[in-house]
Amino acid sequence: xxxxxxxxxxxxxxxxxxxxxxxxxxxxxxxxxxxxxxxxxxxxxxxxxxxxxxxxxxxxxxxxxxxxxxxxxxxxxxxxxxxxxxxxxxxxxxxxxxxxxxxxxxxxxxxxxxxxxxxxxxxxxxxxxxxxxxxxxxxxxxxxxxxxxxxxxx
Amino acid sequence: xxxxxxxxxxxxxxxxxxxxxxxxxxxxxxxxxxxxxxxxxxxxxxxxxxxxxxxxxxxxxxxxxxxxxxxxxxxxxxxxxxxxxxxxxxxxxxxxxxxxxxxxxxxxxxxxxx
Lengths: 154, 114
What we know:
heterodimer, A: alpha+beta, Beta-Lactamase, 6-stranded antiparallel β-sheet, 4 helices, B: alpha+beta, 3 helices, 5 strands, globular
């Protein structure tokens, strides 16, 4: 597991241990990565984050159109693997957690432990400096900085 | 009313049974349930479906067949589960429940699962 910001490490590690997911990536709603596990290449993380942020935006708008409030959980069941995308509201804005899992766990378990993750990450966010910007002015350099922190490049 | 309500009602009528759920064994999500107020049904469903699946796989690996009746005894109650056709029927009961009767009802209800 690698994290670009230290405060997300404990909640993310706990989620990975409990839910037994294969791959997980935590990002903000704009798709900036905060932590990941299971990815080997930064380009894969970048793609996953961009797609997850787009899916969240689409699902949110679809929910608003249909039910007057955004859909907050997306689940896609493949033949061997499944994906779950959940939204965790925090004082620093909503975070997205994309998880990919197989038959070693289940959707129910992922949902249960994601609920616990939401509580932990919100608590962890409270403890950090609330005045720090949630989205840096220079989005691209911040995105690259986070990816470099995860994959050890400059 | 879902097709599972008669089975759930029959199990819930037993003295001391506090929850009865039909859960998808693979996904661990609730298909139908009757729960006492305040019980976290989704947590029960996810954890017990996972436990049942692993127990059933263990029994199959030991060469004892595919069906299983799972009983989990704890200090202040017990959980029983039977499975059929990818669904698990779970009963949560306190210690005063007659285990024999519960077992009979669960096995009867299993036939209606799928």
